[in-house]
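User: My collaborator sent over this chain with a note saying "see what the structure looks like." That's all I know about it. Can you take a look?
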Amino acid sequence: MNMKLKRAQGDRIFWFLAFFSSISVIIMFTLLFYELLANSLPIWSQGINFVTGVVWNPLKGLFGAFPFIYGTLITASLAILLSTLLGVGIAIFLSEIAPGGIRDVISSIIELIAAIPSVIIGLWGIFVLAPFVRDNLQPLLQHLSFIPLFSGKTLSGLSMLTAVLILTFMVTPIVAAIAREALLMVPEDLKEALYSLGATRYEVIRNVCIPYARQGIFGGVILGYGRALGETMAVTMVIGNTPTISASLLNPGYTMAAVIANEFTEATGDVYLSALIGIALLLLLISLAVNLVGRMIVWKWQQES
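Assistant: Without extra context I'll predict from the sequence alone. Here is the result:
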């Protein structure tokens, strides 16, 4: 009887700890959202003009956040597009094609890249990638200057294109690692069944592996997109930090995370400070929207399955 009582008490304690751990995340997020909203109220007196405004000049009291929203969405979206192609390709190679020895070496390298601090990657971007974009990549893209994306010109190499490449380098290991784990979960019986019918490796990957693992792959893409949206230091170091809206990737830009990192310590006045906190709130809402859309798509796939 005493033993049963002890077990019941242990179960209740475990349930309480688990429940407290779960609810604490919700409480912390609620407090975070409340603090951002409460401290950004002065800037919201401008209404929608704060979100749609294109001029950022704190000295004149002009706070338009749209250049930062534009820079964030453009760089993160293009980076996740490239990262998805590269990451899924790497995952397919590691899970279905590569021999065991090569697979282990490449997997270890990918994990090491994912662990590199962003400030180190930013320094590499300044001293290696930016000169490469200026001296090698830009002359090649001049032939495509009739396309608005490549119509500009960078004299320093610091541009939105450099930021896209930096983000691609940082996000690809995340997408590749998660996609690889998803592909490794595909049952061997399904693949062997298709091989027995005379299917090629490409047909097995296209018709079995990708459809079976698509939810896991998409989860990795959403996680990588969230990382790209919120990346601060590396992007700040290579994007040029100019609050302008340009169709060309070869022109400098600015992101929401970068402006917060650059100007928060020197913000003077309640409105200036609340504008930066308001940008942080917008970044949080955009990240939530991305994750919500991703969840809805995965839920729809599950319903279809």
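A starting point for your reply to your collaborator: The chain has a mean pLDDT of 89.
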